[in-house]
Amino acid sequence: MALDEYPARRAFPGVIGRTFDVSEPAWPQPRRAAEGAPNVLFVILDDTGFGQLGCYGSPIETPNLDRLAAGGLRYANMHTTALCSPTRSCVLTGRNHHSNHLAAVTEVSTGFPGYDGYIPFENGFLSEMLLEHGYNTYAVGKWHLTPADQGSVAGPYDRWPLGRGFERCYGFMGGDTHQYYPERVHDHHRVEPPRTPDEGYHLTEDLADRAIAFIADAKQVAPRPSRSSSTSPPAPCVRRITSRASGPIVTPAPSTTAGRPTGSACSPGSASSGSSRQERSCRGTTPTCSDGRTAARTSDASMPA
Question: What is the pTM of this model?
Answer without folding.
Answer: 0.70
